[in-house]
Amino acid sequence: MVQMKKRTKSETRRRRSHHALKAKVLVKCPQCGQLILPHTACSFCGTYKGKPVGQIKGAKTKTAKKASKKEAPTAKPEVKDKGKIKNKVK
Ligand SMILES: [Zn+2]
């Protein structure tokens, strides 16, 4: 692709005048005090305006994800054991 016309410094700078990032507005959660986006449920304690709203998707911390992964392989053998016990009862 060929450049049609040289862009002047002025045009480039005018275009880039809108590229600056604005700081996000954060408010304190009334329940746990963590900084969260306004008008959203708190992903740390699962509440909105201090009232519980259930489990929030993606609210798990890094340590929680690691723990759940470790638990998953151990859960499968337990199910197999239950099946064996049922067979013995029959
Ligand atoms: Zn909270």
Give a description of the structure.
The chain is mostly helical and 90 residues long. 40% of the residues lie in helices and 9% in strands. The chain folds into two domains: 23-59; 61-90. The chain has helices at 9-16, 62-89, and strands at residues 27-28, 35-36, 47-48, 51-52. It has a two-stranded antiparallel ribbon. The chain has a two-stranded antiparallel sheet with strand order 3-4. A hairpin with a 2-residue loop joins strand 3 (47-48) and strand 4 (51-52). The N and C termini lie far apart (76 Å). The model has no long low-confidence stretch (mean pLDDT 77). Bound molecules: zinc ion. The site of zinc ion (ZN) has 8 residues, from loops. Zinc ion binds next to loops.
The rounded Rg comes to 27 Å
Total E-strand runs: 4
**Individual helix count:** 2
- Series of H and E elements: HEEEEH
Number of domains: 2
Largest sheet: 2 strands, antiparallel
Q: List cofactors, ions and other ligands.
A: zinc ion
Mean pLDDT value: 77
The proportion of residues in beta strands is 5-15%
